[in-house]
Amino acid sequence: MRTLIPFLFFLTFVTSCVQKENKTTEISGRISPASAAYIILQKETDIERKITETIDTITVDDQGTFRASYNIEPYLYSLKFPNKKSVNLALGENQRVYIDIKNYNTEMVTVSISGSQDAEELSAYENFRISSLDSLVETVRRDIKELKKAENPDSQKIAELGQLELLNYDKHLDELNRFIKHNMSTTTGLYATSLRWKGAQNFAFFDSLATNFEITHPELKITKKIREKVTRLQQTAIGGKAADIQLSTATGAPLKLSSIQAKYILVDFWASWCGPCRRESAGLNEIYNTYTRNEFEIYGVSLDDKRQKWLDAIEKDNRMWPNVSSLERFKTPAAYDYAVTALPDNYLIDQNRTIIAKNIHGDELVNLVNKLLVED
């Protein structure tokens, strides 16, 4: 994976082009080579549920230059290009941001952003995020991919690397938190980083970020979004009450989480397209078959959007426990309620829906369930 300046950034931007008067925020730049005739400006209304609002279509001239001005609402926006790639921007008020895109439509594409502290801070964060993800996680994923190409893949080695991938992803998130602490202020780019806020041990840090942002920007809509994220992290902390879920099974029948009667229930968020999720299937089957349904149950919540792929994965992985989905990916209401922004993710709850553990996998999950049921 390239670790040049990534083509995907988070960046705040601008309101509607319909309001032509009092234009205060300017977006300009150049695409080289000049092979895009237009750019679509979108507002990233909700980064967790992937909800966007189209604001404008910006014309790119024959020289690859573009320029547009808007009345600004400090928020997250994105520029969508004809080749399906995007640049995300984070801006405050009365700013002039310049975007220089080189090697467009190639694997060597680079993007540099200047003119806005909000945008520049977030750009630096995204550069670091891509580099950290590659060194800690993508390298392991590439090793797993290579092992799978063998005529007789080493399943034990693949399983070990799968566990390493999960551990390294947590290390990656810790690196991101340290970067935020030392390199970011209360600019609007902070909202983009909240997509990867996880870990009960980090709650005080996230709460302080939200509090400082509220002090600096008490009137902004984006401030409420940041506080909402912290609130949901608090509500889904260990010891909290797990929200009820009602989604449809493969047969179309509704199934409530609260209808599951077992001493302990693993609420497992997964998807057919999630490699680590699929690799967990064998381990989940092992622990599932160890206990009765009165003792331990799994409530699988798929974040798929293709019904057949979901059903095929259930059959292939022998996921015999209750499985539900709304086929909305991260727009699934339960994903939002449980602050799920990356997969795999899970919550271990008791019969009163009290959260006992979260984001627990492999031997750690097996050992905890064994301990709980032995104590009972």
What report would you give on this structure?
There is one protein chain. With 376 residues, the protein is an alpha+beta fold. The protein is 36% helix and 24% strand. The chain contains 10 helices and 16 strands. The strands form 4 sheets. Strands 1, 3, 4, 6 and 7 form a 5-stranded antiparallel beta sheet that branches. A 5-stranded mixed beta sheet has the order 14-13-12-15-16, with no helix packed on it. It has a 4-stranded mixed beta sheet with strand order 5-2-8-9. A hairpin with a 4-residue loop joins strand 3 (38-46) and strand 4. The longest helix has 32 residues, at 117-148. Mean pLDDT is 91; it is low at 1-21.
